[in-house]
Amino acid sequence: MSTIPELYNEKCHCAGCSQNDLGYSFVARRTAQRHNKRARLNAIRCERDMSTQRNMMEVDDEPILTHQPGALEESYTQTNSPVWEGASMSDTEDVSVTNDAISNGDNDDSGSNSNEISEDESEDNVIELDDNELNSEDPFATPDMPQNPVHRFIATFVVMFASRYVVDKGAVVLIEFINKLLTIYEQDFQLPLSLPGLQRMTGFSAMTKGIKKFVVCQDCHKVYEESASVPSHCDFVKLGARSSCNCQLTKTSASGALVAKRSYLYQSVLHRLGYLDLVRGTIIDPMHNLFLGTPKRLMDRWIKDKDIQDDDFAAMQKTAETMIVPGGYTSLNSKIGKQFSYMKADEWKSWVLVYSPVLLKDVLAKDRFENWINFVDACRLLIKPTITFDEVNTAHQFLQTFCTRCDELYNAEILTCNMHLHLHLRDTIRDFGPVYGYWLFGFERFNGLLKNLKTNRKIGFEETFMKKFIEDVHKDDLVNSFLQSTRQTSAFPLLTKLTSSFTPATIPSIRQRTFRIQSFVEASEDPNVLVKGNEPLPPSAFPLSLKSATTMSDIHYVHLLQYYKVAYNNEQLVHFQQALESPYFVDNTITLLKYINILGQVYKGKGESGSRGSLVQAKFIGSTGEHIIAYTGQIQYIFTHSFTPPPTSSSLTPLLRTHRRPTQLLHNSQHTFAFIKWYTPENDKSREYKHVETCFPTFSPDDFQCVLPVHRIMLEVATAEHTTRRKVKKMLVIPLPKKQYI
Fold first, then answer.
1. Which pTM does this prediction carry?
2. Is the dihedral of CA 583, 584, 590, 596 positive or negative?
3. Looking at the record, which segments are called Disordered (predicted)?
4. Which of 317, 319, 367, 654 has the fewest CB atoms within 10 Å, measured from its CB?
């Protein structure tokens, strides 16, 4: 007798599955539920059809039942249910099954009828059910959930609020407070007194019930389920071995008890699929592969070969202390002078992308530095949140050249398995997308938080993190379930604050002005594109972090007035002090912003965060009109300004020209600008090298170009002070990869 797979352990007695000697078949649990649900729906449709025909007979006084053509005749002519076969019309009048009974699955009569469908009926002859009928069951439905929509909202809100903001002990106090309010307002409902009880009542605990604990042998990787008896040593016998693995699975705690080495995994049926390629399905973590392997190995080699000596580390540290690094990158305050001891992935990332192109230029030999830049070029492309297939191929070529040159410049010992995996990152990104979706920086930061709190011994990191992750993923589903069951749209804004990102399935989104990502990106890359500052901003910018309204300084206001004259090609615009003389004046009232989020990149004024996040680049057309030049500047402040031009103003100017034909749209009066002071560019570009530009550390005179629409900000930069041999002070500019979360 063949063994039934563990997955198919549910008996199904439907008409299709009962055509054998046993009278049933083993199927998956969900398949059995689907078959029974289909049978109940079929029985209801038969009842309704025969009831309709009975009414027709009473009206027409016809003694013979006649079938109408259609899907019902095709599906039910062979039914052998005792309700329909051999029963008079009066016998069937007492048979009724409601839709509520079907959805709840608690009607015994419908359950018995589901097993009485004709044996000759096959899967192909059954009416196709709508997906909504089969998937309408609420995954969070529990018998203890209150029917009152207000009570359901209270329970849902408390369980989600406790999950996001409150620890277990605080949740108990919150529950007691809510119960006290319910008592005061004479409500016949109380929340469970414990957080686990509340999670069970709302179905919230069902999210993580699939997590199981296992013990894994670190040698042969045999898995033991912790619920069973776990041996102290692994008993797996390897192929061709004469004895068992005998790897220690448990260790002795301070109290003398045996403690298992746990691993928290999902028990997945995917591993049983023959077509699943586990090798290709294994993701290479870019954090470890790019930043925790190769940079450290090469640094150790440079120190060993005396390419970098103690004096060099001291000089590099002195230069590094003058560098201004944008937000999102870690400043290396003293790690460089200490020869990169105890560096973390975030710090190695900053070293590779920001510091190394500047600090290694005058330290390493030319051939070794140029080869290192190949690795930097690859990292600059691969870490982008949005990446094209051409950029993936280009990064692969950089890594291939880097590994080949390493073999030539050093020796075979420098090449490791980790460096070999550099060449498989292209396949990983092609299969799974940009690295931000799966690299382990988030785990490293969370683990660092646990170490700072010194709670590693008190909680299981893996289990806690996995439960938290799964709960956050399914919070949106819980909110949608509540909205669909109660239609309480007034609770929507409050519940969405408890989710990280929510896309409602039942609530229509607010209609906004059309935002086109391609046009927005093009505006920052091509200065020929006409941008006035009132074009739609990306959704990431909202809600705007507005401060109080204020008046613009008189010095800066004249540049804003000139900007509008040029942008709208209207010299009739006048100073606000001349408002009585002409209706076409520019107001001097502005609203400052704390910051603005442009596709995931946060820009700030220098007063908000020192200089971090305020150093940017934007492209302008050169004075000859032929070349496009990237200028470096510092944001002084970000602001919004309302302005409506006269109806006769033209939309094209010689300075802000575009080859596109303007589209007449409803004018948006709100403009969003950044007031930027631009550094004085250096005309001699011969001494610049890859990834590092130079300019003077002084600002150019202000003009209307200092008023820049935020749409035209290209990217963030890092800077460093530099003094030449002739004692000329200059500023080194390191353009950083542009972040675009689309």
1. 0.58
2. positive
3. 73-125
4. 654
